[in-house]
Specification:
By secondary structure, this protein is α+β, with helices and mostly antiparallel strands. Among the domains are: 55 residues, Orthogonal Bundle (3-methyladenine DNA Glycosylase II, Chain A, domain 3); 127 residues, Alpha-Beta Plaits, CATH 3.30.70.20. The protein has twelve helices and eight strands. Helix 2 crosses helix 3 and helix 2 runs antiparallel to helix 4. It is elongated, with a radius of gyration of 26 Å.
Length: 296
């Protein structure tokens, strides 16, 4: 028994030395710039930059010369920081950040139910059952797939069964937009305050029968917009009011004129994410996942 223990100890020591030598001999050197850039990136691995994760994007910047402004969660200041690490000047702004917007107001009590859904609490699963549990085939199912998919915890479910988006936390990564089977989520500039909260393209009479706050294609908004920024687009059987965000000035005239009040004007928010508003900005700039916990 004694000799067996001694033998195992000796073998362990020998193998330990061999592994230590091999580790040093075959070690792969990592460019320190990759780790430095990783600390600037949010670390959520949402894939919106086109790479599987933040570490992959950092490697692509250093090794492949990828653009330094592909991360929607990073502002122009972050891009400039990355530029400093790479020794490249990054001029100009990245533009106004975008946030997710819900194009549906048909929550509980407004959109008529078709049946009581008792299946898997997932919008994609519900979409397989007669196009969802509501009479409106275009509206939000309210089962929280967007909430579960958001890598920044920027979406919660409201009391009316519709997702609520925290524009202070949302980074515009677009994950919820891609995951929504109803396509009722879209990205819009954070400074754009006026939105049509309806995606129903049916004729006005049919849309109103399915939801009391549906767009009825009356074109009152189109006729009263001084900038020509809102149009009812499509044919007679399939159309919806759409806002051209580049033309819209947030005047709110369409909001006042809309007979079903499906056009909404939001209160403005800052054009910065939680990384910039976090009290511990120095710590937040090195690995903040923009989860929103700093606002609780």
């Amino acid at each position: 028994m004694f000799y067996a223990v001694i033998s195992l100890a000796v073998m362990g020591a020998v193998f330990g030395v061999i592994l230590a030598v091999a580790g040093k001999k075959f070690a792969v050197e990592v460019d320190p710039r990759i780790e430095a850039i990783q600390k600037i990136l949010p670390g959520a691995n949402c894939g919106s930059c086109g790479y599987p994760g933040c570490s992959n994007y950092a490697e692509a910047i250093v090794l492949d010369g990828a653009a330094m402004s592909l991360c929607p969660s990073c502002g122009s200041d972050a891009a400039k920081e990355i530029g400093e690490i790479m020794g490249v000047a990054v001029d100009g702004e990245m533009g106004q950040r975008k946030v997710a917007q819900l194009m549906c107001a048909g929550g509980t009590g407004k959109a008529k139910p078709l049946y009581k859904y008792e299946g898997i609490q997932d919008c994609k699963a519900a979409a397989l059952q007669y196009k969802g549990p509501k009479v409106c085939n275009y509206g939000c199912f309210g089962l929280g797939t967007c909430v579960a998919s958001c890598p920044f915890c920027a979406i919660t479910m409201g009391d009316d069964g519709l997702p609520v988006i925290d524009r202070d936390v949302c980074t515009g990564c677009g994950v919820c937009v891609r995951e929504c089977p109803q396509q009722v989520l879209q990205l819009a500039p954070v400074g754009q305050l006026v939105h049509v909260r309806c995606s129903n393209k049916d004729k006005g009479k049919d849309a109103k029968a399915a939801c009391e706050v549906a767009c009825i294609k009356c074109k009152i908004c189109e006729k009263n917009c001084p900038e020509g920024a809102i149009k009812v687009v499509g044919d007679l059987g399939s159309s919806i009011a759409v806002i051209d965000y580049e033309k819209c000035t947030n005047c709110g005239i369409c909001v006042e004129k809309c007979p079903t009040k499906v056009i909404e004007k939001q209160e403005p928010v800052a054009e910065i994410g939680c990384r910039d508003t976090n009290e511990n900005a120095a710590e937040a700039s090195t690995g903040c996942a923009l989860c929103g916990a700093c606002k609780e």
